[in-house]
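[Q] Does anyone have a clean structure-token version of this?
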Amino acid sequence: MKYRNLFVLLFSVSLFSCGKDLDVPSDGDIVVNRVSGTFSVSADKQVRFASGNLQYNAALNKWRFAENQFDCTADYNSSIGSDFDGWIDLFGWGTSGFLVAPYCSSTDVSDYGNNNQGAENNNLDWGRFNSVSNAGSGARVWRTLSSSEWEYLLESRYKAKEKLAPATVCGYPGLILLSDNFHRPDSCTFIATFDNGFESNVYEDWQWRKMESAGAVFLPAAGFRYGNVVDEVDLFGGYWSSSYFDNGKAFAFCFDDYEEDLGIPPIDVCFGYSVRLVRDVEE
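[A] Here you go.
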């Protein structure tokens, strides 16, 4: 996996606050703003993806899904802070607000206290702890995929390698994942190759709307954040899993224009990565 200069940076970190100060919302059961296709994440479990990456506004204390799957807030993340009145979408691991605030920008992994536990099915998970303002839902409706679920989705489901490829959607580079029973729409192409990087598949708006309606997910290459420094936007995508490793590290799904990988080695929890939530398909 190429990380380019992922760990070779000179960082200028401003003051930060990581303390818990958010209220626990009530349960919710209304689910909207999701992609239509279903995706197998184990031999007996399927999920639907949210309609865009998770975003947070500290001044409003509000969560939302991005308006489009290809949206990312890029350099806005460099203004991360407790009073920033703008939307951020690159988060340290487990920053749901339960133990660590979403606007935490510390580069010290010990500030992301999680009692050495993963975020599976508990309040460390952004989707389990928070309501999403434009999804019509309260807490405990959405969740984050575990590392084993990411691995099954990318490696083990039926024809897995034929269902992912880099792409440029409406001018934004990223990675496409096709649903289990995806049927390619008329006037659209899809080539499961990394040979041409993000130019392997290129979609204008009208083509992407057809692909999306047929059950395609797009993960934008939103870059990453370290402290208040944002880098690799349009070049690299990192998406957290709910799975903690050890010693201040957690697993993430990462990709660039020519390769994808399930975060080996695990990533320091202080890095700001993207979050795409899912909803379990009920029996």
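[Q] Thanks! Anything notable?
[A] Helices lie at 126-129, 147-156, 205-213.
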